[in-house]
Amino acid sequence: MTADTPSETPVRFRDLGPLEIERGGEVSAVGGARLESALALLLIHGGHTVGVDALCEAMWGERGVDRSVSTLDSHVWRLRRVLEPGRARGAASKVLVRDPGGYRLVLAGDDATDSGRFVRLATAAADRLAAGDAAGALQQASRAAALWRGRPYGVAADEDWAHAAVARLDAVRAGLRETHIGALLGTGAPEQALGELETALAEEPLRERLWLLRMTAYRDAGRRAEALRAYTDARTVLVDELGVEPGPDLKALHAELLRDDASAPVAAPARAEPPQHLPAARNRLVGRERETAEIAGLVAPGRLVTLVGAAGCGKTRLALEVARETAPPGGSWFVDLTVATPERVPETVASALELPAPGPVEPADALRRFTSARRMLVVLDNCEHVLDAVAELVEEMLVEGSQLAVLATSREPLEVDGEEVVALAPLTSAAAVELFLDRLDALVPGGVRDDESMADVRDIAEAVDGLPLALELAAGRARAYTLTEIASQVRADASTLSRVGRGRGTNHHRTVRDAVGTSYRDLPEPLAALHRAVGAVPGPFTVDVAAALTGMTTTDAVDGTAALVHRSMLSALGPLRVGGVSRFAQLATVRGHAVHEADRAGEDPAARRDAWVEGLARAKPRLGAHTMASWYAALDDDLASIRATMQRTLVDAPTPLGATLAARLGLYWAFSGMALEGDRWRDAALRTLGAELVDPVDRVLLLLGNANSRLVQGDPAVGRVLVRDALAVAESLTGDDAVIVCDDLAVTTGPLRRVGDAEVLAEVAAATRRLAAGAPELDVVVRHTELVADAAADPRPELVARFAALHDDARAADNLYTAWSAAAGAATIALAADRPDQALPWARATLQASADAGLRDNAYALELYGLTLGRSGEDATALRVLGAAEAQHRAAGVPWPRNEEMSTLLATITTRLGATVADRARAEGARTSLAEFLA
Fold first, then answer.
1. Which of 402, 804, 887, 910 is the S-S candidate for 918 at Cβ 3.0 to 4.6 Å?
2. Among the three residues 187, 219, 252, which one is the final residue of a domain in this structure?
3. CB 476 within 8 A of CB 496
4. Where is the OmpR/PhoB-type domain (predicted)?
């Protein structure tokens, strides 16, 4: 290959403004917002692997992780064509290479990106100015400034994942502007410098360095009065906006001007690096760019910033990173309070700050005197066990006018006036994987090389909830265990992770369980009991569950849950829906500690959990009642408790309770997008429990639930057998049991109608009438089964009126299930008579009744509505609705399209709209809820 072959020409990325690619002097666009976003993420991590999930999220947002690998690969192929247009077919890419778990952008040197060259030139300019070479600094600064075309990374500039990188470049640009102004002053051009300062201060009026340069420029231009006025303006802005006095440099220049003693022009004297009394960083900080930038922006003289979070979430490491990046002139200091007692907190801080023995002066007084006039930052680490003492000391140190900044880490806030609290969450899934791989490579270089290993890494990251300490300890096991074994270990109990070998951390970081234990030991017994009890829920839970697990009153549970959130022992997740109740959860590591402590105390909170779940399941309202919506919502809110109880009672130690739950929750699974999960639970109940252990009514419901699934999944022969088995068991039922079974028989008529089984439908209708025994409250249900059976036998047009009457009567009887089914019957018969105009309002009524009943999913109602819209000529809307129906059918294991009519309709509409528009409409519909279609 010759040197002038296009694929060999170096690629340069113009990333300071709209993203562009420069090759051989020719500039070209990337081509599309998604490719720009992907390239921006790769540039930000230039030379490092970017995970598949992170790339998908960058291109498609939060739902991007649902995209298939093949979809991502197709976009990578397009990006490679832009980056290497001359690459031969089949040749490996030299610019965008595939690594295990993701992709890596190969950059040809520091000048391969405008941002890299910009930083290099800006740094060189600052260095030359500090060395007294103002002319050289001006030349370098001008070259750097010419590269800036707008906000870095184009369309991605405002994305969360780009925030830290953009902020860093903005900070370099701000520094470059000051260097450029300083160089103008150093080369004798104060008037030109004043012109640039006018714009700079309008954009950043709180930047003291700009005010200092303005005063210097006025002084150098012989405009002493204006220099003094600039100081007054600066002080007004800083006091009004930040509540702080000007710094020592501004004050010193002001004093010189007042003495009329201003020295010869000094552009930018070299400054010594601020002293940093901080522990050494042994490894790089991963996944905290946004938090670092946020906290760095909060740290300021006279201010307390407290970083709170659960044990092991990386508070100390992040605080140290911030301290290094924001070190003020007086330096950054680190104080470890791990072993301090309340009465020795002032002495511990004074010792860390290397203060001499104060003699008769109290340590707190000595600290106040030492810190108040110094622009310094003090990190107070691990404050949770000495909160009151730390809070009292901070209040004494941060007196009015103090130049001290305090950054504290704790598991709960200090609650000092003016405190800025930043809650630190565990790492995102992509960052957690990156951290684990980083630490793993340090121990076992190249240890992850295939998709199977990456799957284990993702499992590990998920099992420890992205907790940095747990990820580091898990990586430490890689010399002894395979990744698959480590994944199994952390799934079993992440709290057992401990440091391998001697380690270099403090004792409270040697094991995850001990890290949690330091918080647990400080809890009063009611809170400790609540902590132990909620360990029985492996996921989100509500206060109702917390109260049931402990025997507390609801009021006490509300207060206790809030107290554990305050101490970072629980995470507050908020409601699932607008107007819903708040949910809470323990991190996996915290939950492991809770389970361990409950076992030590001889407690069995799981038994109380199971009893609560049973009560919720048995409180199921009558079929289609308007209260079903709130019941479904309650199940959603505490789904983790339900699943834990079903696992225990159907898999770990099967009991009749498991069968009852699998039977009574059938409709919930079916209409909440979890039909396949419902199948698994019912199969487990029928497989593991003999008929003699299962209540007859539960057995009927289990058989009918499985029959419905087999019918809709394309196995009508098995479905027919199961329905008849259920009818045989139901023959002996009476009273409330008969009522429950009648309701579920009405549900079964739908799948039977869709497969056209008129014979079994007639049997179901007869059985429903027999079980109802004339009970008035079952009249609508009996009419439902009989009318569906009649329609299957002879779908004559006059049945529309009967279905319409049944719909109205069902609504009056508070049976929204029969209401939507009757509306569907009316729409179906109208369509069969080629009357889409008559069918459309009834098809929409199916959606309305479904939503009123609290159903999140109803693939058949959506399918009918979409079919009716398509027959009415509303092509685009029809495809959106059918896209939702397809997504819900596939999630339930139902073939799609289900019949020839649907296949023909989809093909016809796609031809009319065009494949691109049609695909977009179906994809949009797949992300749209039933309620949104109504809106």
1. 910
2. 187
3. no
4. 3-107
On the 0-12 / 13-18 / 19+ scale of CB atoms within 10 A, 792 is: buried
CA 372 – CA 351 distance, rounded (Å): 17
Summarize pLDDT for 398-452 with one digit per residue, the tens.
988 888 999 999 999 999 999 999 999 999 988 999 999 988 888 877 666 677 8
Exposure string (b/e) for 532-543, b if CB count within 10 Å is 16 or more? bbbbbbbbbbbb
Tell me: do 141 and 27 sit in the same domain. yes
Rg of the chain (C-alpha set): 34
Tokens of 868: 């009716």
Residue showing tokens 């093949």: 70
Q: What type of residue sits at position 173?
A: R
Query: How many other C-beta atoms are found inside a 10 Å radius of the C-beta of residue 834?
Result: 9
Say if residue 362 is in the same domain as residue 483: no
d(CA 750, CA 785): 9
Q: What is the pLDDT of residue 64?
A: 52
Q: Is the pTM of this model over 0.70?
A: no
- 928: tokens are 């749209």
In a domain, 722, yes or no: no
Q: Quick check: 102 and 430 in contact, CB under 8 A?
A: no
Angle at 8 between CA 5 and CA 12, to 5 degrees: 125
Q: What span, in angstroms and rounded, lies between the C-alpha atoms of 159 and 414?
A: 32
858: closest CA among 881, 878, 888? 888
CA 43/CA 160 separation, integer angstroms: 15
- Reported as a single tens digit per residue, the pLDDT across 132-150 is 888 888 989 988 888 888 8
Q: Is 40 left (phi over 0), alpha (psi -120 to 50) or beta?
A: alpha
Residue type, position 304, single letter: L
If one counts the domains in the chain, the total is: 6
pLDDT value of position 681: 95
Inside any domain, residue 793 = no
Task: Tell me whether residue 592 is in a domain.
Answer: yes
Sign of CA dihedral 238, 242, 245, 250: negative
Tokens coding 441: 């490579």
Residue 231 in any domain: the answer is yes
Report residue 537: phi and psi, to 5°.
Answer: -110, 110
CB 408 within 8 A of CB 306: yes
**851 and 914 assigned to the same domain:** yes
Q: Which residues contact 4 (CB under 8 A, 6 or more apart)?
A: none
Instruction: Give the end of a domain, one of 492, 516, 545.
Output: 492
Mean pLDDT, all residues of the chain: 87
Residue positions counted in the chain: 935
- Residue 725's Cβ-count burial label (10 Å; 0-12, 13-18, 19+) is middle
Three-class secondary structure assignment of 33-74: HHHHHHHHHHHHCCCCCEEHHHHHHHHHHHHHHHCCHHHHHH
